[in-house]
Specification:
The chain has 125 residues and is mainly beta. The protein is built from no helices and ten strands. The chain has two domains: 10-59, no CATH class; 63-122, no CATH class. The model has no long low-confidence stretch (mean pLDDT 89).
Length: 125
């Protein structure tokens, strides 16, 4: 069972309607403003903000994250990063970016799993 609330989230403004994107990865797109997508991942959205409203983002610690384990299954202990839709996927290969460690497995698209967010991580060569 996915859990969170081990650390307090940080508050940013939502750039766009994120009401259907709770537990998806977001990135910084302006001064204290976040949007959905890949790229330089900031953290995982913890609420359902509309455009311009407060987006609560977990950047470190235990969080819930929507996953896509349908292609390559995620196993507890795997390094994870975000795909282009903001979902957690298995991070693999030398030099791959790592945003966290899966605390639960996923073999389907859309499952919410527990992840330990570890910002700035990279898988060794």
């Amino acid at each position: 069972m996915a859990t969170a609330d081990r650390y307090l989230p940080l508050s940013f403004a939502a750039s766009g309607n994120l009401t259907a994107k709770q537990y998806y990865a977001v990135r910084l797109v302006g001064t204290r403003t976040v949007a959905l997508g890949s790229g330089a991942m900031l953290g995982v959205l913890d609420n359902k903000p509309d455009h311009g409203h407060a987006a609560e983002v977990y950047v470190y610690g235990e969080a819930k994250w929507v996953s896509d384990g349908s292609g390559t299954p995620i196993v507890a202990g795997d390094a994870v990063y975000t795909d282009h839709l903001g979902k957690a996927v298995q991070a693999s290969g030398a030099g791959a970016k790592q945003a966290g460690i899966a605390l639960e497995g996923s073999s389907a698209d859309g499952l919410v799993i527990g992840v330990l967010l570890t910002p700035g991580g990279q898988i060794g060569a």
